[in-house]
Design brief:
13 helices, alpha+beta, 2 domains, eight-stranded mixed β-sheet
């Protein structure tokens, strides 16, 4: 019988721990890789408490993020991965070795796999994992197919959304690219207070903008009236997809509907970059029938943004969610108890 130590040694010899540059080359070879698996995203998270590690075994790979806990322990997280072709079941033992080296209590994976799926796919690809109710990224979203003429994109929108885009244009709202992340953050503070949103720090937004704009993978758009900022958004692009991650608006001139024109200009930016899909990133995790029945009456959580996002058309999609692989059962249960007490997931 092969001892666990000998088996770990063999697995270490068959896997590659890559640097950021080599991982970028791997990403470049996989045009459908999610932006949350890029080394640029890893660099962003590294400045805010995470340690990215890049692991590849044959044709499969993943960026694993580690966050330190007391007593030298950690938690491990793979956002929207692994990447590549092959049997995931053959990949996890190598990831286990890395997680043991980092003394991880558990590994959370949120694969870039969309429902519906084959009945046995999850069992095949995620053996030894259990579903988790605590997702880090929003599992449900609205995606817009950008492979259409602008007239078709406008016609698929709700009539009120089309009207508001044109209203903003008539009311002299101007949308322009900007580097003023501080102005965006100030509007985010207003948005967070008004809509009970959690927001990032100025340092976080600035670092995200600096890292991704240097790769021509991010744009900050500001909507103005007579030179006064009214709303802003940060959109990101990787491969065939663009994402609307961060948006903000203040309380000035809201009757001019600046957020609608802002979103339309972000869609135009994504089209110019050759993206095929625009991901509006994050709506309540309920079936479409529930969303449509209740969106007028609810404003908690992501319900307010769903009311806005649904107007742009597109289709609702949901990933398979989050799955955990537990290495230390008792500390994991204590961690879950603590996270539940906080009413949020502590590894966000």
């Amino acid at each position: 019988m092969i001892s666990p130590i000998a088996n770990d040694q063999w697995l270490m010899e068959t896997m590659d721990l890559l640097n950021a540059q080599s991982w970028q080359q791997f990403i470049d070879d996989h045009s459908n890789a999610h932006i949350l698996q890029t080394p640029t995203w890893g660099a962003l998270k590294a400045d805010f408490g995470w340690t990215p590690r890049f692991i590849r075994q044959e044709s499969l790979g993943a960026m694993v993020l580690f966050r330190r806990l007391p007593l030298g322990l950690s938690i491990a997280y793979i956002p929207r991965g692994p990447i590549g072709d092959g049997d995931w079941a053959d990949f996890w033992p190598a990831v286990d070795v890395l997680c043991r080296q980092e003394r991880a209590l558990f590994l959370r994976v949120e694969p870039d796999i969309w429902q519906p799926v084959e009945p046995d796919l999850i069992e095949r690809q995620l053996p030894g994992f259990s579903p988790s109710a605590h997702t880090i990224q929003p599992p449900r979203t609205i995606m817009i197919d950008l492979q259409r003429p602008d007239d078709d994109l406008l016609m698929q929108m709700k009539s009120k959304t089309r009207y508001n885009i044109r209203l903003a244009e008539r009311k002299d709202v101007i949308v322009r690219p900007s580097q003023d992340v501080a102005a965006f953050h100030r509007m985010s503070l207003t948005t967070g207070e008004r809509d009970a949103f959690g927001i990032h720090s100025l340092a976080y937004y600035q670092r995200a903008y600096d890292l991704f704009s240097a790769r021509d993978a991010c744009i900050l758009l500001i909507a103005e009236f007579e030179g006064q900022p009214l709303a802003g958004l940060m959109a990101f692009a990787q491969g065939d997809t663009a994402w609307y991650f961060y948006g903000a608006s203040n309380n000035q001139e809201r009757n001019r509907m600046p957020t609608y024109l802002l979103q339309w200009e972000a869609i135009q930016w994504a089209k110019r970059k050759g993206c095929k899909t625009y991901d509006l990133w994050g709506i309540p995790d309920d079936d479409e029938s529930v969303l449509e029945a209740e969106f007028m009456d609810r404003s908690d959580g992501l319900w307010g943004v769903y009311r806005f996002k649904r107007g742009f058309g597109g289709e609702i999609h949901r990933t398979i969610g989050a799955y955990d692989r537990v290495y230390h059962a008792l500390p994991y249960q204590l961690y879950r108890w603590w996270a539940n007490r906080r009413k949020t997931d502590a590894i966000t």
